[in-house]
UniProtKB/TrEMBL annotation:
<dbReference type="InterPro" id="IPR023865">
    <property type="entry name" value="Aliphatic_acid_kinase_CS"/>
</dbReference>
<keyword id="KW-0547">Nucleotide-binding</keyword>
<feature type="binding site">
    <location>
        <position position="391"/>
    </location>
    <ligand>
        <name>Mg(2+)</name>
    </ligand>
</feature>
<keyword id="KW-0067">ATP-binding</keyword>
<feature type="site" description="Transition state stabilizer">
    <location>
        <position position="189"/>
    </location>
</feature>
<keyword id="KW-0418">Kinase</keyword>
<keyword id="KW-0460">Magnesium</keyword>
<feature type="binding site">
    <location>
        <begin position="338"/>
        <end position="342"/>
    </location>
    <ligand>
        <name>ATP</name>
    </ligand>
</feature>
<protein>
    <recommendedName>
        <fullName>Acetate kinase</fullName>
        <ecNumber>2.7.2.1</ecNumber>
    </recommendedName>
</protein>
<comment type="similarity">
    <text>Belongs to the acetokinase family.</text>
</comment>
<dbReference type="GO" id="GO:0016301">
    <property type="term" value="F:kinase activity"/>
</dbReference>
<feature type="binding site">
    <location>
        <position position="7"/>
    </location>
    <ligand>
        <name>Mg(2+)</name>
    </ligand>
</feature>
<comment type="subunit">
    <text>Homodimer.</text>
</comment>
<dbReference type="InterPro" id="IPR043129">
    <property type="entry name" value="ATPase_NBD"/>
</dbReference>
<feature type="site" description="Transition state stabilizer">
    <location>
        <position position="248"/>
    </location>
</feature>
<dbReference type="Pfam" id="PF00871">
    <property type="entry name" value="Acetate_kinase"/>
</dbReference>
<comment type="function">
    <text>Catalyzes the formation of acetyl phosphate from acetate and ATP. Can also catalyze the reverse reaction.</text>
</comment>
Amino acid sequence: MLILVANLGSTSFKYKLLDVSGDLHAADIRPDDRVLARGAVERIGDASESRCEVTIGDYHNVYEMPVPDHGIAVQSCLDQLTDAQHGCLKDASEVSAIGFKAVHGGRKSGTFLVDDDVLEAMAEMNAAAPAHNPPYIAAMKLLRERFPDLPLVAAFETEFHDSIPEARRVYATPPNWREEYQVQKWGFHGSSHRFIAERTAELLGRDDLRVISCHLGGSSSLTAIQNGKSVMTTMGMTPQTGLPQNNRVGDFDPFALPLLIERSGKSLEVLLGELASEGGLKGLSDRSGDLRDIEAAAAEGDAKSALALDVYVEEIRRHMGGMIVAMGGVDVIAFTGGIGENSDVVRRAICANLQSLGIVLDESRNEGHRTEGPLHVESSQTQIWVVPTNEEWIVAKRTKQAIGN
Ligand SMILES: Nc1ncnc2c1ncn2[C@@H]1O[C@H](COP(=O)(O)OP(=O)(O)O)[C@@H](O)[C@H]1O
Ligand SMILES: CC(=O)OP(=O)(O)O
Ligand SMILES: [Mg+2]
C-alpha cells in the first residue's frame, strides 16, 4: 500500500511516497526503509529561485527554479513521480491515498477524510492560519479535481495537543469565548512533536520520559511531553503565536493594535498582514526570515541580525524554563526542524549556562552536528539530542488508519 504525504510548510513543500504495507507499529520498523521517493522545495515565494530536490530510488537531482506558490510545488511533485524516465509510478492511481500534514481545522481536530465539511472547517480558520490553511485548501482542491477517486486525508497538527490539561489550554478571556468562538490554545507541529515523543522513547528504551521537543524551523514551537503525551506547548490559538516565527510575530499584546491603528493610519487588516508576514525573525533582522542569512549577517557584525538571534534564543529559554517547572524536571531536550537539526549556533546559545539545572552540552559534539545523535556530556543529567523529525511517517500512519476506518 502506497501513501503520498504532502507537507506544506510556511516556507517549504516536502513530500514522501511511503510503502505502508503490514504492521507499522512493530519495533523493527525503520521508517526510512519505507520511503520510495522524496522531494523538497525550499524558499517558496522568495524573490530568489527556490531550491528543489528530488530522490526517487537511485535517481537524485537538485536544481533551482522559480516556485511562487505551493500549487506549483505540488504539481511538480506529481510530475516527478510519474516522469517516464525517472519516476516510480506509471500513474497516480497506484497511490492508495494522499495524507496532508494539515494545520488548523478548528472544530475538526483529529484525522479525517477530506470532504466539503473538512474544507469548510479549514476555511473557517483561514484568518487564524493565513500562511498555512489557504495553500492546503488550494492543494486539496487541485488534487481532488485531478484525481476524484483518490482518498485525501487531513491529519491535523492540533490533534497531538488534545491531551494538554485545561489549565494550560484556556486563555483568561471573557466568559464563553472558548465555547462560542473556539478561542483556546490549540498548539501545532503535532506530527513532529509526536514523532519526537515516539523516537526519544525508542532511543532511551523507556516511555516514562519528560521531554522538551524543540521544533525550530520556518515555524517554531516547543512542546513538553510527559509519558508520550503533550502537556504544554508554545503556540496558542494560531501558528502566529509563541516563539518569533520566520516572518510572523510570535507572542504580542493585542492592545498595541488600537494604538497602532491610530498612529500609523493603517487598517487592522493591513497591520495584521504585516504582523504575519513582515514580523518575526524577518522583522527583527530587517533582512531575512531565514536563519542561515541571519547567522551569516550576525557573524559579519550586523547588529539587527545579532539581536534577532538573541531574541529568538531568549524566548526559547523562557518557555523551556516554564516547561521544566511544569514537568518537575526534564530527561531529554530534543532539537528538530530545519534550525534545530542544523544550527549549532542556536543550540549552543539555548543550552548555555544551565549546569545548575543538570543540562550540559558537549560543545565539540554539538559543532557541525546535523544527524540523529546525542550532544550532551556524559555527566549531564538531561540528555540533549538532535532528532531529525519525520512528520511524514506520523501522517502516513494516521492516513492508513483513516482510510482503513
Ligand atoms: N543549514 C542551516 N542552518 C541554519 N538554519 C537552517 C539551515 N537550513 C535550514 N535552516 C532554517 O530552517 C528553516 C526551514 O525549516 P523547516 O523545518 O524545513 O521549515 P518549514 O516551517 O517550512 O516546515 C529555514 O527557514 C531556515 O531558517
Ligand atoms: C504550524 C506549522 O505547521 O508550521 P510549518 O509547517 O510552517 O512548520
Ligand atoms: Mg515545518
